[in-house]
Design goal:
13 strands; about 45% strand; globular; 13-stranded antiparallel beta sheet
Protein backbone atom coordinates (compact mmCIF):
# COMPACT_ATOMS: atom_id res chain seq x y z
CA UNK A 1 0.00 0.00 0.00
CA UNK A 2 2.97 2.35 0.62
CA UNK A 3 4.68 1.67 -2.71
CA UNK A 4 2.41 3.90 -4.89
CA UNK A 5 2.95 6.80 -2.49
CA UNK A 6 6.72 6.30 -2.63
CA UNK A 7 6.59 6.27 -6.44
CA UNK A 8 4.41 9.41 -6.45
CA UNK A 9 6.72 11.28 -4.10
CA UNK A 10 9.75 10.25 -6.15
CA UNK A 11 8.11 11.41 -9.39
CA UNK A 12 7.15 14.76 -7.90
CA UNK A 13 10.65 15.22 -6.51
CA UNK A 14 12.04 14.63 -9.99
CA UNK A 15 9.97 17.57 -11.22
CA UNK A 16 10.81 19.66 -8.16
CA UNK A 17 7.13 19.88 -7.13
CA UNK A 18 5.19 19.13 -3.98
CA UNK A 19 1.85 17.35 -4.21
CA UNK A 20 -0.01 20.64 -3.73
CA UNK A 21 2.09 22.40 -6.36
CA UNK A 22 1.40 19.59 -8.82
CA UNK A 23 -2.29 19.69 -7.91
CA UNK A 24 -2.43 23.43 -8.62
CA UNK A 25 -0.75 22.84 -11.98
CA UNK A 26 -3.32 20.21 -12.99
CA UNK A 27 -6.14 22.57 -11.96
CA UNK A 28 -4.57 25.45 -13.89
CA UNK A 29 -4.23 23.29 -17.00
CA UNK A 30 -7.87 22.16 -16.66
CA UNK A 31 -9.09 25.75 -16.40
CA UNK A 32 -7.12 26.74 -19.50
CA UNK A 33 -8.54 23.73 -21.39
CA UNK A 34 -12.07 24.83 -20.44
CA UNK A 35 -11.49 28.31 -21.81
CA UNK A 36 -9.48 30.12 -19.14
CA UNK A 37 -10.75 33.67 -18.46
CA UNK A 38 -13.60 33.23 -20.96
CA UNK A 39 -14.85 30.23 -18.97
CA UNK A 40 -14.71 32.13 -15.70
CA UNK A 41 -16.40 35.19 -17.24
CA UNK A 42 -19.39 33.14 -18.43
CA UNK A 43 -22.53 34.99 -17.29
CA UNK A 44 -25.21 32.41 -18.02
CA UNK A 45 -25.84 29.09 -19.74
CA UNK A 46 -28.81 27.43 -21.45
CA UNK A 47 -28.79 23.69 -22.13
CA UNK A 48 -31.50 21.89 -24.08
CA UNK A 49 -31.69 18.17 -24.65
CA UNK A 50 -32.97 14.93 -23.18
CA UNK A 51 -32.95 14.15 -19.47
CA UNK A 52 -33.19 10.57 -18.22
CA UNK A 53 -33.85 9.42 -14.68
CA UNK A 54 -33.18 5.91 -13.42
CA UNK A 55 -34.23 3.73 -10.51
CA UNK A 56 -32.08 0.69 -9.80
CA UNK A 57 -30.48 1.06 -13.24
CA UNK A 58 -33.90 0.90 -14.98
CA UNK A 59 -35.17 3.90 -16.92
CA UNK A 60 -37.89 5.58 -14.84
CA UNK A 61 -38.33 8.86 -16.69
CA UNK A 62 -37.52 10.65 -19.93
CA UNK A 63 -38.22 14.26 -20.76
CA UNK A 64 -37.25 17.09 -23.03
CA UNK A 65 -35.27 19.38 -20.75
CA UNK A 66 -34.12 22.98 -20.73
CA UNK A 67 -31.68 24.01 -18.02
CA UNK A 68 -31.14 27.76 -17.61
CA UNK A 69 -28.35 28.92 -15.29
CA UNK A 70 -27.40 32.43 -14.22
CA UNK A 71 -24.08 33.07 -12.45
CA UNK A 72 -23.98 35.71 -9.72
CA UNK A 73 -20.26 36.25 -9.29
CA UNK A 74 -19.53 39.49 -7.45
CA UNK A 75 -16.40 41.31 -6.42
CA UNK A 76 -13.87 39.48 -4.25
CA UNK A 77 -13.55 35.80 -3.31
CA UNK A 78 -16.58 33.72 -2.37
CA UNK A 79 -17.20 32.13 1.02
CA UNK A 80 -17.15 28.29 1.32
CA UNK A 81 -20.95 28.07 1.65
CA UNK A 82 -21.85 30.85 -0.78
CA UNK A 83 -23.82 29.62 -3.80
CA UNK A 84 -23.29 32.07 -6.67
CA UNK A 85 -25.79 30.64 -9.10
CA UNK A 86 -29.52 30.49 -9.86
CA UNK A 87 -31.08 27.71 -11.91
CA UNK A 88 -34.38 26.99 -13.64
CA UNK A 89 -35.08 23.46 -14.85
CA UNK A 90 -37.93 23.14 -17.36
CA UNK A 91 -39.27 19.78 -18.53
CA UNK A 92 -41.61 18.85 -21.36
CA UNK A 93 -42.23 20.31 -24.80
CA UNK A 94 -44.18 23.23 -23.34
CA UNK A 95 -41.72 25.09 -21.12
CA UNK A 96 -44.39 26.81 -19.05
CA UNK A 97 -46.12 23.53 -18.18
CA UNK A 98 -43.65 22.72 -15.45
CA UNK A 99 -40.34 23.86 -13.99
CA UNK A 100 -38.16 23.64 -10.91
CA UNK A 101 -36.55 26.85 -9.68
CA UNK A 102 -33.55 27.07 -7.35
CA UNK A 103 -32.85 30.66 -6.36
CA UNK A 104 -31.64 32.54 -3.27
CA UNK A 105 -31.47 29.40 -1.15
CA UNK A 106 -35.06 28.37 -1.96
CA UNK A 107 -36.65 25.93 -4.35
CA UNK A 108 -40.06 25.72 -6.02
CA UNK A 109 -41.95 23.28 -8.20
CA UNK A 110 -43.83 25.49 -10.67
CA UNK A 111 -47.00 24.39 -12.47
CA UNK A 112 -50.12 26.10 -13.79
CA UNK A 113 -51.54 25.80 -10.26
CA UNK A 114 -48.77 27.89 -8.72
CA UNK A 115 -45.40 27.47 -7.02
CA UNK A 116 -44.98 24.73 -4.42
CA UNK A 117 -41.89 24.82 -2.17
CA UNK A 118 -39.74 21.74 -2.67
CA UNK A 119 -38.59 19.74 0.38
CA UNK A 120 -35.55 21.09 2.22
CA UNK A 121 -33.78 17.82 1.47
CA UNK A 122 -34.03 18.58 -2.26
CA UNK A 123 -32.60 22.07 -1.75
CA UNK A 124 -29.75 20.71 0.37
CA UNK A 125 -28.90 18.06 -2.22
CA UNK A 126 -28.91 20.64 -5.04
CA UNK A 127 -26.64 22.85 -2.98
CA UNK A 128 -24.20 20.03 -2.21
CA UNK A 129 -24.17 18.83 -5.82
CA UNK A 130 -23.42 22.34 -7.11
CA UNK A 131 -20.75 23.19 -4.54
CA UNK A 132 -18.95 19.90 -5.26
CA UNK A 133 -19.14 20.20 -9.06
CA UNK A 134 -15.62 20.61 -10.45
CA UNK A 135 -17.00 22.83 -13.22
CA UNK A 136 -18.56 25.14 -10.63
CA UNK A 137 -15.39 25.06 -8.51
CA UNK A 138 -13.21 26.03 -11.46
CA UNK A 139 -15.56 28.84 -12.43
CA UNK A 140 -16.66 30.31 -9.10
CA UNK A 141 -14.57 28.98 -6.21
CA UNK A 142 -10.90 29.18 -7.23
CA UNK A 143 -10.35 32.41 -5.25
CA UNK A 144 -11.99 30.97 -2.15
CA UNK A 145 -9.80 31.12 1.00
CA UNK A 146 -8.63 27.73 2.26
CA UNK A 147 -9.08 25.80 -0.99
CA UNK A 148 -6.40 23.07 -1.31
CA UNK A 149 -5.48 20.97 -4.36
CA UNK A 150 -3.70 17.73 -3.49
CA UNK A 151 -2.27 15.64 -6.34
CA UNK A 152 -2.94 11.92 -5.84
CA UNK A 153 -1.09 10.47 -8.83
CA UNK A 154 -2.09 8.92 -12.14
CA UNK A 155 -4.80 6.34 -12.78
CA UNK A 156 -6.60 4.73 -15.69
CA UNK A 157 -10.21 5.95 -15.78
CA UNK A 158 -12.63 4.68 -18.43
CA UNK A 159 -9.58 3.28 -20.25
CA UNK A 160 -7.97 6.72 -20.35
CA UNK A 161 -4.85 7.95 -18.47
CA UNK A 162 -5.86 10.56 -15.91
CA UNK A 163 -4.41 12.81 -13.21
CA UNK A 164 -6.15 12.48 -9.86
CA UNK A 165 -6.58 15.54 -7.63
CA UNK A 166 -8.32 15.96 -4.27
CA UNK A 167 -9.96 19.39 -3.91
CA UNK A 168 -10.67 20.30 -0.27
CA UNK A 169 -12.25 23.51 1.00
CA UNK A 170 -12.04 25.32 4.34
CA UNK A 171 -15.04 23.32 5.62
CA UNK A 172 -13.05 20.09 5.01
CA UNK A 173 -15.32 19.01 2.14
CA UNK A 174 -13.42 17.01 -0.46
CA UNK A 175 -14.17 16.08 -4.05
CA UNK A 176 -11.81 13.81 -5.99
CA UNK A 177 -11.49 14.69 -9.68
CA UNK A 178 -9.86 12.78 -12.55
CA UNK A 179 -8.54 14.85 -15.46
CA UNK A 180 -7.77 13.30 -18.86
CA UNK A 181 -4.03 13.69 -19.41
CA UNK A 182 -4.35 14.44 -23.12
CA UNK A 183 -7.06 17.13 -23.11
CA UNK A 184 -6.68 18.24 -19.43
CA UNK A 185 -10.50 18.17 -19.15
CA UNK A 186 -12.35 16.50 -16.25
CA UNK A 187 -13.48 12.91 -16.82
CA UNK A 188 -15.04 11.95 -13.52
CA UNK A 189 -15.51 13.22 -9.98
CA UNK A 190 -16.39 11.55 -6.69
CA UNK A 191 -17.53 12.90 -3.35
CA UNK A 192 -19.36 11.47 -0.34
CA UNK A 193 -22.53 12.76 1.27
CA UNK A 194 -24.29 11.65 4.45
CA UNK A 195 -27.91 10.67 3.81
CA UNK A 196 -30.01 12.83 6.20
CA UNK A 197 -32.61 10.07 6.70
CA UNK A 198 -30.52 6.92 7.04
CA UNK A 199 -27.26 8.44 8.24
CA UNK A 200 -25.40 6.28 5.75
CA UNK A 201 -22.66 7.64 3.52
CA UNK A 202 -23.57 7.88 -0.17
CA UNK A 203 -20.97 7.89 -2.93
CA UNK A 204 -21.87 10.56 -5.50
CA UNK A 205 -20.18 10.18 -8.90
CA UNK A 206 -20.46 12.47 -11.94
CA UNK A 207 -19.10 11.48 -15.35
CA UNK A 208 -18.34 14.13 -18.00
CA UNK A 209 -18.11 13.36 -21.74
CA UNK A 210 -18.39 14.90 -25.21
CA UNK A 211 -16.93 18.32 -24.46
CA UNK A 212 -17.57 20.85 -27.22
CA UNK A 213 -16.73 24.48 -27.86
CA UNK A 214 -19.86 26.47 -27.00
CA UNK A 215 -18.44 29.86 -27.95
CA UNK A 216 -15.25 31.86 -27.47
CA UNK A 217 -13.22 28.74 -26.73
CA UNK A 218 -15.39 27.77 -23.75
CA UNK A 219 -15.72 23.99 -23.46
CA UNK A 220 -18.76 22.28 -21.90
CA UNK A 221 -19.79 18.58 -21.62
CA UNK A 222 -22.81 17.54 -23.69
CA UNK A 223 -23.13 14.21 -21.85
CA UNK A 224 -23.33 14.21 -18.04
CA UNK A 225 -24.14 11.15 -15.94
CA UNK A 226 -24.67 10.90 -12.19
CA UNK A 227 -24.38 7.74 -10.13
CA UNK A 228 -25.16 7.11 -6.48
CA UNK A 229 -23.53 4.15 -4.78
CA UNK A 230 -22.65 2.69 -8.16
CA UNK A 231 -26.15 2.97 -9.65
CA UNK A 232 -26.96 5.43 -12.42
CA UNK A 233 -29.66 7.91 -11.33
CA UNK A 234 -29.53 10.68 -13.95
CA UNK A 235 -28.19 11.43 -17.42
CA UNK A 236 -28.42 14.56 -19.56
CA UNK A 237 -27.74 14.50 -23.29
CA UNK A 238 -27.53 18.08 -24.52
CA UNK A 239 -28.46 18.89 -28.09
CA UNK A 240 -27.52 22.54 -27.63
CA UNK A 241 -25.54 24.57 -25.09
CA UNK A 242 -25.53 28.36 -25.38
CA UNK A 243 -23.70 30.80 -23.15
CA UNK A 244 -23.95 34.53 -22.43
CA UNK A 245 -27.55 34.83 -23.59
CA UNK A 246 -28.25 37.82 -21.36
CA UNK A 247 -30.92 35.93 -19.45
CA UNK A 248 -33.44 38.12 -17.66
CA UNK A 249 -33.61 38.12 -13.87
CA UNK A 250 -37.36 37.55 -14.23
CA UNK A 251 -36.64 33.99 -15.36
CA UNK A 252 -35.27 33.19 -11.91
CA UNK A 253 -37.80 35.08 -9.80
CA UNK A 254 -41.38 34.04 -9.05
CA UNK A 255 -44.00 36.46 -10.47
CA UNK A 256 -45.49 38.62 -7.73
CA UNK A 257 -48.99 37.38 -8.58
CA UNK A 258 -48.10 33.66 -8.58
CA UNK A 259 -49.91 31.62 -5.97
CA UNK A 260 -47.62 29.97 -3.38
CA UNK A 261 -48.94 26.50 -2.61
CA UNK A 262 -48.50 24.57 0.62
CA UNK A 263 -45.40 22.39 0.87
CA UNK A 264 -45.84 18.66 0.46
CA UNK A 265 -45.90 16.98 3.89
Amino acid sequence: MRLPLVVLVSALAAFGQTRQERGKQVIHDALEALGGPHFRAMQDRVETGRAYSFFREALSGLSVAKISVQYLRGAGPSAPDQLLVRERQSFGKEERSGAVLFSDGKGYQITYRGARPVPQETIDRYRDTTLHSVLYILKERLDEPGLVFDYQGSEIVDNLPADKVDITDAENRTVTVFFYKQTKLPLRQIYYRRDPKTGERDEEVTIFAKFRDVGGGVMWPFDVQRLRNGERIYQMYADSVQINQNLSDELFVLPSDMKILKPVK
